[in-house]
Amino acid sequence: MTKIKSLRVHDVRFPTAAAGDGSDAINRGDYSATYVELFTDGGPTGTGFTFTNGRGNEITCAAVEALAHHVVGRTPAEVRPRDLTADVQLRWLGPEKGVIHMAAGAILNAVWDLRAKLAGKPMWQFLAEMPTADLVACVDFRHIDDALTPGDAAAILDKGRVGLEDRLAQLRREGFPSYTTSVGWLGYPDDKVRALTRAAYAQGWRAMKMKVGGPIDDDVRRARIIRDEIGPDALLMMDANQVWGVDEAIANMARLAEMNPYWIEEPTHPDDVLGHARVQRAVAPIRVATGEVAANRVIFKQLLQAGAIRVMQIDACRVAGIPEVLAELLLAAKFGVPVCPHAGGVGLCELVQHLAIFDFLRVGTSLDGRMVEYVDHLHEHFEDPVRTRDGRYLVPEQPGYSSALKPASIAEFRFPDGPAWS
Amino acid sequence: MTKIKSLRVHDVRFPTAAAGDGSDAINRGDYSATYVELFTDGGPTGTGFTFTNGRGNEITCAAVEALAHHVVGRTPAEVRPRDLTADVQLRWLGPEKGVIHMAAGAILNAVWDLRAKLAGKPMWQFLAEMPTADLVACVDFRHIDDALTPGDAAAILDKGRVGLEDRLAQLRREGFPSYTTSVGWLGYPDDKVRALTRAAYAQGWRAMKMKVGGPIDDDVRRARIIRDEIGPDALLMMDANQVWGVDEAIANMARLAEMNPYWIEEPTHPDDVLGHARVQRAVAPIRVATGEVAANRVIFKQLLQAGAIRVMQIDACRVAGIPEVLAELLLAAKFGVPVCPHAGGVGLCELVQHLAIFDFLRVGTSLDGRMVEYVDHLHEHFEDPVRTRDGRYLVPEQPGYSSALKPASIAEFRFPDGPAWS
């Protein structure tokens, strides 16, 4: 029985703000990781993280320290996620949202990485081969059982066993569909957008996402450039990063509809379930997509109940790790909404490929409307980086969650004492 | 022009957990304050805080440090709340929720305390006498303007001028209605509940709140004790502190309805707008009340749009200070829902009395269904503590937000180095 002997957290920051990479209507920062290592006696080291945007990464690190006693001294299987998410003192700082929840996610991601490594399997396989009862036991059904019961979850997961081997063979042949966000950050001038779009199309991408939420005339002009480059058949997604009000989102999408967007992502405030529902009704058949900053499974439950989204974008780091993501995948399957994970940042591509593959193998069981975001940043810092071919993710094969940073990268980019910052 | 020269934050914790005070279905902690002082050159010191539940208070303190640069070097009037709530790097940690938002609240409460002190007025008066245009300019309408426009806000505030002097005279004669929560914490045995209820009734209280959310048979038994003591006419409120699922809340309230509760508070997860709406439809005419952990004005907007609450419980410390509370009071007035502020903890009674009085004078303009929570804890640590008479708050008259802790209390209870903790 391998016990978690100690926890160490690193404040790792990459200086991305200066380049305009990752700039959108509302965020601009230095992509950072609150990076957790769980040490064992002689066993593997579990690694996990939550992604942040630079300043404030020290706050999530402090929150990790405050939660560490819930895992140190236990075996991975003994860790109870609710100890972290419903701590009688710390939950006041959420509950189940923001800093404290992201810190729980960093820790629980590391715990599940350790479990997968101990099993000698990549995360997608570790989850896909887990007995239904064990998967159901991972899920905290409190506050979602009006939409998803343990019985519902078991039925979905049992059904997911049928044809699993065929789906895996298909993935190994073809890879997992993805789209690229690297062409249209708000910080890029028009000619750079055109050049990047042309290059991405040449590389095989047939789905691309642009940022909107600047002055609407600029958004329209940039959207025309991209649509002009990719032709009528490739998919163009738009992402407003929450900047619009509800009425404003509806009005702006009426103008952008000319470029036939596949989805509008984060049209308004992420907490506004009713607002998203209004936008979805107004902009259909354009899909509303959201989720990268949805605080927890209770928000996703409502987005689904209200018919507010037609694409659900889970995040690997904002919620309480694998167990809560599992709840979210099951909710999406129950409501028949496709999951297209949010990626980019630091290491999000590395993590969500496992979630998307598991979803296809055992939960959603379809590739229809499924795509994983792909952003070509910072992969070189990971021990087991994503691999893509012709705009598709290849199946990762190393044990664990692909979450380990290279020691040299940690040393170089540790804040504030790493050479990159001093 | 008084400039904010520097900011200091104190981690102050009171060891309340051991006594069972403040114990409910989901929280038990050491009542704490992330306490902010804003120093000026020769002018008064602004004080503000956010309330936490013990462990983790160091995290909100770290978040205050990360936001401090948005106020230091500015005059109070130059502080722009959105600089704190939409910081391009820090907002990723929310947005507008949890640790980072509570820290913004602590700072902005201190900024507004400083403004009121510079004007030489208690906060309620400073706000009540402010020109409509200035009040409207304080509000961030982004993401709520589908429910409340600047024009709506101005109309409410202009109308609130009519009869203001009469309402103030009434308050000075009679005080502001309140209710007590000190009789029925979950940590108390039955005989203590009975004795406290009897004592409170003898002191003049005609509205009392008990905690529910334990085993339902225990909740029913304790409710019978209290109803038995207070007779059929006094108000009995119940507070489940978020512990129930939606269906569970409906089922349990069917049993507790026998004791004729006035409201059920926090019946389920605070993010669950649709869940609260279902509960409200099922338990009517019992009122659903919530808000002490509603993350921001966008959650309140939806609770009102969905008809999910009939009592709105604002909190002075969870959201981004006076400006966001102002938005919430205006939303409640627009939808015609009475505001009954959450209090207790550390210093929440001291703060919310100002908000309730301002609401009566200038926004809601009625006492119908309005009550401020009262908990008799920790007032002795404040320079300008609340004063009550016959279950009513008396109008505070000192300049500022009544938010200043006594220096001796800060020194005694500072964590971890104060004598109370070492």
Automatic annotation (TrEMBL), chains A, B:
<dbReference type="InterPro" id="IPR034610">
    <property type="entry name" value="L-fuconate_dehydratase"/>
</dbReference>
<dbReference type="InterPro" id="IPR029017">
    <property type="entry name" value="Enolase-like_N"/>
</dbReference>
<dbReference type="InterPro" id="IPR013342">
    <property type="entry name" value="Mandelate_racemase_C"/>
</dbReference>
<keyword id="KW-0460">Magnesium</keyword>
<dbReference type="Pfam" id="PF13378">
    <property type="entry name" value="MR_MLE_C"/>
</dbReference>
<dbReference type="Pfam" id="PF02746">
    <property type="entry name" value="MR_MLE_N"/>
</dbReference>
<dbReference type="InterPro" id="IPR013341">
    <property type="entry name" value="Mandelate_racemase_N_dom"/>
</dbReference>
<dbReference type="InterPro" id="IPR046945">
    <property type="entry name" value="RHMD-like"/>
</dbReference>
<keyword id="KW-0479">Metal-binding</keyword>
<dbReference type="InterPro" id="IPR018110">
    <property type="entry name" value="Mandel_Rmase/mucon_lact_enz_CS"/>
</dbReference>
<keyword id="KW-0456">Lyase</keyword>
<dbReference type="InterPro" id="IPR036849">
    <property type="entry name" value="Enolase-like_C_sf"/>
</dbReference>
<dbReference type="InterPro" id="IPR029065">
    <property type="entry name" value="Enolase_C-like"/>
</dbReference>
<feature type="domain" description="Mandelate racemase/muconate lactonizing enzyme C-terminal">
    <location>
        <begin position="190"/>
        <end position="286"/>
    </location>
</feature>
<protein>
    <recommendedName>
        <fullName>L-fuconate dehydratase</fullName>
        <ecNumber>4.2.1.68</ecNumber>
    </recommendedName>
</protein>
